[in-house]
């Protein structure tokens, strides 16, 4: 007998160790399988010992890394800070406007919820924590944070980032806590599709992806649709971003269901800081209420400014319409002015003496005739010089056509009136361009 | 005149390690394994605790020591995950035992041998984890991607070689 144990010592030790671990596994999985459920007290104790050994080293390494990064961030990498600040201010202004546009709907929604006694859970308090380590295994998607039960953390509290949900607390130790990420194969969360409002269950996978696999094919579900928490799991508050649908494919192993793969809203691969939701409340938090009130005021101010702008615009439009009517009428009337004449711009100019003397405008005088005859203005004597019954005086001597006059062969072309002005052009009289030498001969 | 004779290779090249190395190297491997993926996600493909298990097992050439080393490292690794404690413990116990048994039979100082045993043990580790999860724990959703496991084995083998050479300096020949 002794020789048997001596001979097979190695194998017996292996079998004994494997057997002990198998029994240990059986004890651990004996409890009802519940995804992400915390361990029994004995197992938790074992984990606590292991974490107590590893966590201090993780904290030291994390501290060193943070200091190095801090030096870089605080002293070296400040080149783009001003631009970032400007961008952030722009973003803040834009978000304030967006918030203002949604404030009225939000207030109305809260009023209706209050009327219907609808129990909504809002994030009331959070604890910020830093990620100090991981499980170190591809098969186990958990991280460790530097806050624990001493900071008020409890198992099953939701862990989020401003981008979206991250996971939930699994095991909580005094100074550290284990966070089960949503992409772990044992994870689950109640979700709702933002557009179609279809409720579903989100699960992690062995490959580290998050997917929905309890829905049958539906044409309404499209890639790109946002997925939010539904609040039905009693862990994640309702309405937090989960991710965006990336692809939809049939589940070959579980027909007729589909596998809807999601791109997580939070960057689960590079988590540095997270927020643990330590408390929720049915009413809106005071800070949020204040923000909402400010947003409401902004919305009202915006509406007032918009109304004033609209009124001013209408008034201007009316004025423009009236003016344009007068303009149209004026354009259709014959004009006494020659816009092309050099003097056209000056008559009746505001402030000129003519304008004051003749408010109705100056009557234009005819231009001197090139070849005057008895009909030409000025060739007929004034009525005061005439005697009734007396014979008509001889016609005044008219200048004959100059024999040697150097008249231009072609008259100066009249300036064309722009096509846009339908005013009839006044009669043009060609004028000599150069001094004319005339020889006056008595009329035969 | 009495002559010293060696009855086996095990007696010829059995090594031991200082207690500090025995404790700190596996612990350091587990801590590094927990920290590195936080900063460099791709490094999650590494399995430094398994590399250390293989090294100590083949160097000591004692199956009991190899089994205990594998079990200790695996259980500590399990305690940091959300898996039941014992999954990695069982897999690494078996690997520690086999590695120590092989170390008795063949020359594990040879570079080619080291490449081969590391590559094979990483594939064996993946297979054992698959068996434990699928058959023992009944996790039906547990799948194994063999291409990924081949890449994983190759990468870890490459990483194991310099670590082996580094740890060779800590050996104490008995």
Task: Describe what this molecule looks like in 3D.
The complex is a heterodimer of chains A (444) and B (174). With 444 residues, chain A is of the alpha+beta class. Among the domains of chain A are: 219 residues, Thrombin, subunit H, CATH 2.40.10; 30 residues. Chain A contains six helices and twelve strands. In chain A, the strands form two sheets. A six-stranded antiparallel beta barrel of chain A has the order 1-2-5-4-3-12. A six-stranded antiparallel beta barrel of chain A has the order 6-7-8-11-10-9. In chain A, a hairpin with a 7-residue loop joins β1 and β2. Chain B has 174 residues and is an all-alpha fold. Chain B has one domain. Helices cover 71% and strands 2% of the residues of chain B. Chain B is globular and about 45 Å long. At the A-B interface, α2, α3, β1 and β2 of A face α2, α4, α5 and α6 of B.
Concise account of the structure shown:
With 444 residues, chain A is of the alpha+beta class.
